[in-house]
Structure formats: C-alpha cells, structure tokens
Amino acid sequence: MGEPVTDQDAIVQHIHEHGYYILEDAVEPALCDALLEEIERLEAKEVPRSLDNDFHGHQTTRFYDVLNLGDVWQKLPVHDAILPVARGLLGDDCLLNTYGTSIINPGETRQRMHVDDGPFIGARNSCLRHRAHVENGARAHIVLNTMIALCDFTEENGATRFLPDSNLMPYPSVKGDDNWYELSQPAVMPRGSVLFFEGQCFHAGGDNNSDGRRYAVSVDYCAGYLRSQENFLFSISRDRLPTFSDDLLGLLGLRISRGGLGHVYHHDPDDLMQRIAMPTSSSGPEREAQE
Ligand SMILES: O=C(O)CCC(=O)C(=O)O
C-alpha cells in the first residue's frame, strides 16, 4: 500500500483512485470494548440475527436495526475518523445506507466477491448506470462502506478480502465476479482499524479457519439523493430520535439534501419534528432488548 496516508483529503483521494483505504488507530479501544459488550448483551438477550443465507453466510452473526437496540450504536456513523471521509467522498448530505454487525464465526466459508453499489446500479436502464458511464469513464461515487475491526483482522480469521483498483474495472457481469477472488487481498489490520471501500470495489467476507470470532461492524453510506437500503425513517422508533445528534439525524434523512430532496413543507423534517408532538411507538424489539 506504500506510505501511510493520514490526511483526510488524502484518504478520500486514495479511495477515489484505488477504491479502498485502511486507517489504523481510528476507533478508540474503549469504544471497541463497549461495542463488544453490547454484542454480548444482544446475544444474551437472544435478539434475533438477520440474514442467514448462502450470500450472507450461515456462520456469520448479523445484527441490523442496531440504532433501535442500544445507545452505543449512535457513535460509529458519526465518528470523527469515519464520517468526514464519507462526506468527503459522497458529499455533506450523504446518508446512512445500512448499518450492522458482521461477526464471522469459526468455520464460516468465504463469501462471493461483490460490489456494494449493485442495488443502485443493478437495473439495466437505471439512470445511475447511465450517469456512471458519462463521468470521465469512471462511475460516480454513490456508496462508501466500512468494516470496523473490533478485533485484529487476520487472513486466518476471515479478514475482509478486497481487490485494489477494482473500482476502475468495467461494471461486472454478476456471474463472473468471483474469478477475482484469487487476485484479492485480505484486509489484515489491528483492532480499532477501519477498512473503507468504495461501492465499486470488489470485496468479500473471508473464510474463518481460526478458533476465534472475527468481530466487525459495517457502517455503509450512500449519496444523499438515493433511497437507502435500510428504511431508517420507517424503522427507527420515534422516541429514540431526540437522543440522536444532529449529524446522525442528517444521516438518517432528516435533513434536506443538497438538491432539495426530502423536505417537509420545504423545511428540514426535524425542524418540523421539534414543532409538533411526534407519536411514539410503544412496542418493538428494542423494548425487549433494552429491558
Ligand atoms: O464481513 C466482511 O468482511 C464483508 C461482508 C460483506 O461484504 C457483505 O456481507 O456484503
């Protein structure tokens, strides 16, 4: 990877050019510990995991809807080592796209190589696909994903595999993608590091041949003019919103985008929220999880 890049603009530039960047010492040990404790709490409560299938893995623990599950989850999407990079690449009005754990348990097999902007570009006639090909031969940046290491990532325990410079490859045929696995490299990095990878960068969860779990959280952002993969505006309990920071509310879509999208009577939705009493939900999985 050459000389480490520490300046935030240089990180964005590296992602733009090569599709990825690994930032060490990004997330403080106390926050890693708090997130591990929270995962342990959710597992003890038997909060249901999501997505047990061939693509997402049968031995991978995935908790989604985490902002409803505990306060500590509010910290990562707005973390000052992470959010400025997302904003630098996608724009200040970027949104949270998906957010959850990716804990690869011993015995998990490797995932199929894929890109994360697929849901937005998949439609053959999508305007985004068209736009992609008119911007100097490189597609616009619409997604930035991160893998935040809550333990050391090693090749043996299933470090994320990624293919440097694959952001510049022609948009793939879905079936052919996996050939690139052999060319990929493991994101070997110490606990507290963040792997940033752009939506066009090929990557996959690795296979875990160790006897320990590979703990990670993925915070995935998209451009502010897109519909996010997770429907946060519907799923987040109204009574949790007042506990969120301004930055987090913006990431959830409670701010008007640069192009004027998402307004309520031409106001930011959260301006309106402060003026009217929002209905509160009285049930949901977080209730049980928090008790
Ligand atoms: O857990 C990982 O290392 C990557 C997971 C991933 O890319 C996915 O599930 O889409």
UniProtKB/TrEMBL annotation:
<dbReference type="Pfam" id="PF05721">
    <property type="entry name" value="PhyH"/>
</dbReference>
<dbReference type="InterPro" id="IPR008775">
    <property type="entry name" value="Phytyl_CoA_dOase-like"/>
</dbReference>
<dbReference type="GO" id="GO:0016706">
    <property type="term" value="F:2-oxoglutarate-dependent dioxygenase activity"/>
</dbReference>
<dbReference type="GO" id="GO:0005506">
    <property type="term" value="F:iron ion binding"/>
</dbReference>
<protein>
    <recommendedName>
        <fullName>Phytanoyl-CoA dioxygenase</fullName>
    </recommendedName>
</protein>
